[in-house]
C-alpha cells in the first residue's frame, strides 16, 4: 500500500485490473491454443434479449476479447425476447455439444428474470454462475463457476496482496450476481463478512467498519469519504454511465482517495478482470472442469 | 421485551419455542388429516448412517412427533454406511412416489459428506434444505425448503415480535446447515447481516455490534456476557451434551441473561420449532408445494 508523504494528503493506491487481466488472457490464450490443436476450439454463446446500445457494445467487446485469445464467441439475439423464446434458446445451447459456455446477458425484458431462466443452464456451461445450482454449489463450497464479477473482486484483491483472513469485509449491495456471491467468496477466504444494503441503518457507519469494502450498489458517486475508514481497501464494482456518456463507478474517487489505502479504478479495475475471467471460464468449461 | 424492575438486575425474556411449536403442529395435524382423508398420508424418510446413541434418540423423537400429527416417518438405516450405499438409498427414496420428504441425518461416517450426497435429493423432497439446488434457490429467493433449524430461528424471532428490518444481525458460525442459510434468511428479512466465525478477529466485539445475535458454533457456554450488547436478542442454536448427559446450548445463559433483552432457552427454544418445521415441510411436500 502507499507510503504517505509528509506535508501533503495521502492518496490511495490505484488497484488497477489491467495487468491481472493481461496475465489471465495470456493463460487463456495458451490453454485455448492447446484445445484447438487437439481439435476443440473453446466456444461461448452470449444470449441477448435487449436492444440497449450499452449492452450491445459490451457484448461485442466480449466477442472481440474472445477472438484475441482464441475463443469463439457468438451472440444469439432472441427476437421477440419473450421468456419462452429465451428459454428455448438456452435449452438449445444446453444441448449443443459445440458450445462450452453460455452467458444470459442482462438486462432482460420487463417481466423476464435471470433467476427464473438460469436453471435451464447446466452448471458445467453456466460460466457466469447465474443458476441456482451454481449458486448453491458456491455456497456449499463445491466446484462451480462463480459469477465472474464477484470472482474478479477476489482475484484483484489477491493480485494486489490484500490479506483477507480474519479481516472485516463489508459488501454494499445484495444482488444475486455480485453482492451475495462476493460475500460467499470473502467468507471462504476467512474474512468476517457484513452485507449492507438499502435498508441498512446508518450505512456510512457500517461501511466504515470495513478493512475491505466492496461496493456494488449501482449508483454513481454513492460512496464518499464518510463511508471509508482510513486505510481501507475499496473495490468499486459499479459500471454507471455518466451524463457525458463515460463509464463511472459507485465510488466518488476524488472524495475517497485521500482516505482509502487502495481503490480500484473505473474503468480499468474490476471490469477488465471480469471479462478475462469469463473467457477463462469458457476455456475451463471446454476442458471439462470448473474454474476454481 | 422485558420491563426492567428498579433495584435489581434485569433478566432477559425467555423466548420459548414451545407455544410456537404447538401452533405449527396444530396446523400440520389439520393439513395431514385432510391429505389422509383424500387418500395420501404424508410421509417422510430419515436416512441414518451412524449408530451414535444421541442421533438414534433424536431420529426416534422425530418419528414419535410425526406419528402424533398424522405424518408417517420411517427410519432407513444404511448398513454398512458407505457413500455408495447411502447414495443408492437416497436414489431409491427420490424415485419412490410414496415418500414425500427425505432427511439425510448427520453425522455421517468419516469421509462421507452431506454436501457430496445431498444433490441426489430432488428439491421437492429435500425437506431439510441440504442440497445445492435448495441452497441456491434459497440464496436467489426462489421457492425452496430452507434448512429447518435456520428457518426455526426466523420463525421464533417473528413469533416473539422481534423486528429485523434495518437491524444489525450477527451470525456466529458459518455451517451449511445453520450459519449460512440463517444469514440468507436474515438478509431477506432486510437485516444488515454479519457472519463471524473461528477466524474472526475480536469475536466478542463483533458479536456486541448485534441487535440480534444468532449463535451456531457448536460449543457449550461459548457465548458469555462479553459477546452481548445490552438489550440484544440472542438465539441459541447449540445442542451440546453436557458432562451429566443433559442438553446445553452454545450460550452461557447465567452470564448472558442479565445483559440480553431476550434469549432462547436450550432445551425448549429452537429445537422444538425445528422438529415441528420438519413435519410441516413433509406435509408441504405431500401437498406438492414448498413451505415458504
Automatic annotation (TrEMBL), chains A, B:
Residue sites binding NADP(+) per the record: 173-175, 239
MF terms in GO: methenyltetrahydrofolate cyclohydrolase activity; methylenetetrahydrofolate dehydrogenase (NADP+) activity
Reaction it catalyzes: (6R)-5,10-methylene-5,6,7,8-tetrahydrofolate + NADP(+) = (6R)-5,10-methenyltetrahydrofolate + NADPH; (6R)-5,10-methenyltetrahydrofolate + H2O = (6R)-10-formyltetrahydrofolate + H(+)
EC number(s) reported in the record: 1.5.1.5, 3.5.4.9
Residue stretches making up the Tetrahydrofolate dehydrogenase/cyclohydrolase NAD(P)-binding domain: 147-287
Location of the Tetrahydrofolate dehydrogenase/cyclohydrolase catalytic domain: 15-128
InterPro entries with a match to the protein in the record: Aminoacid_DH-like_N_sf, NAD(P)-bd_dom_sf, THF_DH/CycHdrlase, THF_DH/CycHdrlase_cat_dom, THF_DH/CycHdrlase_NAD-bd_dom
Pathway: One-carbon metabolism; tetrahydrofolate interconversion
GO cellular component term of the entry, any: cytosol
Record SUPFAM superfamilies: Aminoacid dehydrogenase-like, N-terminal domain, NAD(P)-binding Rossmann-fold domains
Annotated Pfam families: THF_DHG_CYH (PF00763), THF_DHG_CYH_C (PF02882)
Signal peptide: none
Coiled coil residues, start to end: none
Keywords, sorted A to Z: Amino-acid biosynthesis, Histidine biosynthesis, Hydrolase, Methionine biosynthesis, Multifunctional enzyme, NADP, One-carbon metabolism, Oxidoreductase, Purine biosynthesis
GO biological process assignments: L-histidine biosynthetic process; methionine biosynthetic process; purine nucleotide biosynthetic process; tetrahydrofolate interconversion
Recorded family membership: Belongs to the tetrahydrofolate dehydrogenase/cyclohydrolase family.
Role according to the record: Catalyzes the oxidation of 5,10-methylenetetrahydrofolate to 5,10-methenyltetrahydrofolate and then the hydrolysis of 5,10-methenyltetrahydrofolate to 10-formyltetrahydrofolate.
Subunit structure and binding partners: Homodimer.
Listed HAMAP family: THF_DHG_CYH
The protein's name: Bifunctional protein FolD
Organism annotation: Actinokineospora bangkokensis
